[in-house]
Amino acid sequence: MKEILECPMCEGFAEPKSEKKKRTFRKEEFEITEFFYLCDKCGEEFTSTEIDELNVAQVYNQYREKYGIPFPGQLTAIKQEYGLNSTNFAKLLGFGINQFAAYEKGEVPNQSNATLLSLCMDPREMLKIVEKKKGILSESQNKKVVKRLVELAEREKSVEPIKYYFNRMQTPDRFTGYHVPSFEKFTNMVLYFINNAQFKVRLNKLLFYADFLHFKKFGTAISGAKYAALPMGPVPDNYAPIFGLIEREGYVLTDLIDDFEGLVAKEKFNSELFTKNELETMQNVLDAFRYKKTNEIVELSHQEKAWIDNEKQKRIISYQDYAFNLKGL
Fold first, then answer.
1. For an engineered disulfide with 324, which of 8, 33, 76, 228 has Cβ 3.0 to 4.6 Å away?
2. How far is CA 87 from CA 76, 100, 115, 137, in A?
3. pTM of the entire predicted model
4. Per CATH, the architecture of 5-67 is what?
5. What is the pLDDT of residues 198-208, one digit of tens each?
6. Sign of CA pseudo-dihedral 104, 209, 163, 278
């Protein structure tokens, strides 16, 4: 959101403010950090489209989390994975012809449809549906989709255990920043920051600030990574095996840098994986910390409520509870 806006009621200027409020959705209350602009001249409060979207997203995200409802991005991803279009997916599930597309765009499904959509996240369950409704797809389409679903089901049996950390089937929650954990995006965030942060202590802080700053601004993380509060500050949960996986996949190489082990990029950063807003957020973090020493960034992270409240128990940090209180950026 913009730091300062002209007041639409007078010639004053307004800054963003926030307060905890409870909002009702489908007869249930959810607590959110509600944002608004407050004019310094006339004292009027108002919002922008961007702020309205952030406030509403907080409610929808918590509702989806509570009931395990797949998020829009997950639905688009599995549609593409399975080789189906939105219309055929809707027909296979017995929805109205445009209903699946509406869910992809953000409409929150009712409980019965949400249960069916959750089942479809598993290719084995989707295979059962396709086989029961052979008349929906043409014979050639049916064979192609069945083959693809069988391949996906078999592939999941041989997935390296640490890759389950990036399991697209899990419902995003407050600990993933309401974003499906993405190995590709996390890895490319590493590649984005690596020239300025070759050592893991510094790199972990830039990753944390990038994900949490984006949530603060837009209500969703960039990578979907979970972050734990450890003695040196917030770090990606299970970061050691994750970095090991990134190296085994050939994206980075561990090498001696000034007599210490550091990371060197072996692949180029792929900007196409990110939205314009995500790229701007990462650039904001890089600009803010480019010339700060690592110990300064660590000390800054120790001032974050996200770290202070969770460090003793080394807990996973909730984006919803702490990103809006971010001090470092």
1. 33
2. 12, 7, 19, 11
3. 0.89
4. Roll (3.10)
5. 999 999 999 99
6. positive
